C-alpha cells in the first residue's frame, strides 16, 4: 500500500473520531468482557537488578505530524504513554539501573511491509521524542537502533552476538520492565521473543518480564476508514492495545497497571 494511502487513512480516522467515540467505547467494553485482562501492582525489589526497555518512543510514531506513521493530531493514549515512560525512566536513572532504548531506524531501500517508509536512518523521525531526549546523556542508558519490528532480532549483530542478550547478562538483570509503542506490534514482538529466549535459558539470570500497560500505546484506524481505503486494515486503538497486552500475558509476561520500588511484595 502506497504511503499516501496510509497518510490519508490516518487523517480520515481523526476526522471521524468524535462521531464514533461512544459506539467504539461500547464495543471495546463488550470485547474486553470476552477476554478480560487482569493487571497487577508490581513492586520491584531494591536488592536485585531491574532493567527498563523502551520500545520505539520516537518522533516517527509519537510526535504529531512527524512522519507517515505519526499521529496527525494529539492522541491521549500516546501522550499518556510518553508521560508514564518518562517518569519510569527518570526513576531508573536516579537509581543508576540499566535502561535500554530501541529506536526504529530503517534504510530507505529496505521497506517494511505493509507499512509505508518511516523512521528512516538519519532523520529526526528515528530519534527519541523530546521528552526522552535527555536519555542520550545518561551513562546507564544503552541506545540500540533496529531495522525490524522485533527488538530482540534487531539486536543481533553480523557475528551472531546479541546486544540485548549481552546487556541482560552483563547487568545481571532479574526483572525486565517494558514500555513503548506499538503495544500489539513492536512491544508484543519483543516480549514474545524475550520470553521464548528466557524459557530456553538464553537470558540468565532473567526471571520476570513485566509490561507496564500505562507505559504502552498503539495507533488508531477505524473500521469505516479501513473499508474505504484500499489495503488498509481496521485497527481500533483501545481494543488493539488491550489485545497486545493480553497476548503478552499469554506468552508469560506479567501485566502491570502500576510499577513501584520497595522491599515488600517483591516480584
From TrEMBL:
A biological-process GO annotation: pyridine nucleotide salvage
Task: Please list the residue ranges annotated as the Isochorismatase-like domain.
Answer: 51-220
Q: Where is the signal peptide?
A: none
State what protein this is by name. Answer: Isochorismatase-like domain-containing protein
> Can you tell me which family this protein belongs to?
Belongs to the isochorismatase family.
**InterPro entries xrefs:** Isochorismatase-like_dom, Isochorismatase-like_sf, NIC1
Q: Which PANTHER family match?
A: OS02G0606800 PROTEIN (PTHR47297:SF2), PTHR47297
The superkingdom listed in its UniProt entry is Eukaryota
- List the molecular function annotations (GO) for this entry: nicotinamidase activity
Q: Which Pfam families match?
A: Isochorismatase
Fetch the Gene3D superfamilies from UniProt.
Answer: Isochorismatase-like (3.40.50.850)
Amino acid at each position: 500500500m502506497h504511503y499516501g494511502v496510509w497518510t490519508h487513512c490516518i487523517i480520515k480516522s481523526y476526522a471521524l473520531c468524535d462521531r464514533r467515540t461512544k459506539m467504539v467505547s461500547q464495543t471495546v467494553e463488550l470485547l474486553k468482557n470476552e477476554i478480560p485482562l487482569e493487571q497487577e501492582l508490581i513492586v520491584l525489589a531494591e536488592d536485585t537488578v531491574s532493567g527498563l526497555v523502551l520500545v520505539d518512543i520516537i518522533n516517527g510514531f509519537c510526535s504529531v505530524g512527524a512522519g507517515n506513521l505519526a499521529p496527525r493530531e494529539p492522541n491521549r493514549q500516546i501522550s499518556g504513554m510518553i508521560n508514564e515512560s518518562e517518569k519510569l525512566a527518570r526513576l531508573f536513572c536516579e537509581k543508576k539501573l540499566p535502561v535500554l532504548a530501541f529506536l526504529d531506524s530503517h534504510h530507505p531501500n529496505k521497506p517494511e511491509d505493509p507499512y509505508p517508509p518511516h523512521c528512516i536512518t538519519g532523520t529526526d523521525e528515528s530519534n527519541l521524542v523530546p521528552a526522552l531526549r535527555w536519555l542520550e546523556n545518561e551513562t546507564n542508558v544503552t541506545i540500540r537502533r533496529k531495522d525490524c519490528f522485533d527488538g530482540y532480532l534487531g539486536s543481533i549483530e553480523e557475528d551472531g552476538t546479541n546486544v540485548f542478550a549481552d546487556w541482560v547478562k552483563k547487568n545481571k538483570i532479574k526483572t525486565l520492565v517494558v514500555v513503548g509503542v506499538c503495544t500489539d506490534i513492536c512491544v508484543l514482538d519483543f516480549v514474545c521473543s524475550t520470553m521464548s529466549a528466557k524459557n530456553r535459558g538464553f537470558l540468565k539470570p532473567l526471571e520476570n518480564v513485566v509490561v507496564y500497560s500505562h507505559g504502552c500505546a498503539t495507533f488508531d484506524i477505524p473500521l469505516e476508514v479501513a473499508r474505504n481505503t484500499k489495503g488498509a486494515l481496521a485497527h481500533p486503538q483501545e481494543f488493539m492495545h488491550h489485545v497486545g497486552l493480553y497476548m503478552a500475558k499469554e506468552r508469560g509476561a506479567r501485566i502491570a497497571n502500576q510499577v513501584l520500588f520497595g522491599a515488600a511484595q517483591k516480584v
